[in-house]
Design goal:
Number of strands: 7
Shape: elongated
Order of helices and strands: EHHEEEEHEEH
Largest sheet: 4 strands, antiparallel
Distance between the termini: 28 Å
CATH superfamily of the largest domain: Pleckstrin-homology domain (PH domain)/Phosphotyrosine-binding domain (PTB)
CATH topology of the largest domain: PH-domain like
Structural class: alpha+beta
Radius of gyration: 21 Å
Helix content: 40-55%
């Protein structure tokens, strides 16, 4: 089996993941908790609604701690990439490990993306598109992302010229 790719993401990506996950977890929690809390407040005789609201609140606390405290450092340690003259190698995953080897002959497009949370931390993502789909390398410093995008585009152009 091949060695793991050498390059890691920027460590600030852990905070981006924490914030993004926290936003989604809170939105889902509110959508699940509020209806049962309202039923419990409006009709106190409906004891089941308060019990369900309590279960949702406990589940929220567990998922929140897991996704915001425990998983980001592990996810960061498992996320690797490497750009070689022939292919882009991406390895990621905590429980289900995935390894992508993307030959540059197959690359159709490369671009950078930056949402509001990434922008706040001075990070960007590089996306490499093939006919089979898109592969993203998140959490790179903006200048590093631009260099990686340009280098991948140049290697893809050279690979097509060699054919």
């Amino acid at each position: 089996m091949r060695d793991m790719p050498a390059s890691q993401l920027n460590p600030r990506i852990k905070n981006v993941w924490r914030i993004s996950d926290a936003i989604w977890i809170v939105i889902v929690f509110l959508c699940c908790f509020v209806p049962f809390a309202l039923v419990s407040a409006i009709a106190p005789e409906e004891e089941w609604a308060g019990f369900v609201a309590l279960i949702v609140a406990v589940a929220f606390a567990v998922v929140f701690v897991l996704c915001v405290v425990v998983l980001p450092p592990i996810r960061y340690a498992r996320w690797r990439y490497e750009l070689t003259p022939d292919y882009l190698d991406i390895a990621r995953g905590i429980f289900w490990r995935k390894r992508f080897i993307i030959p540059f002959i197959r690359v159709q497009n490369t671009d950078t993306r930056q949402g509001p949370v990434l922008r706040a931390f001075g990070l960007a993502s590089v996306t490499v598109a093939t006919a089979a789909g898109e592969h993203e390398i998140p959490g790179l410093a903006i200048d590093e992302a631009d260099l990686l995008r340009d280098r991948a585009a140049e290697l893809a152009r050279l690979a097509r010229e060699d054919v």
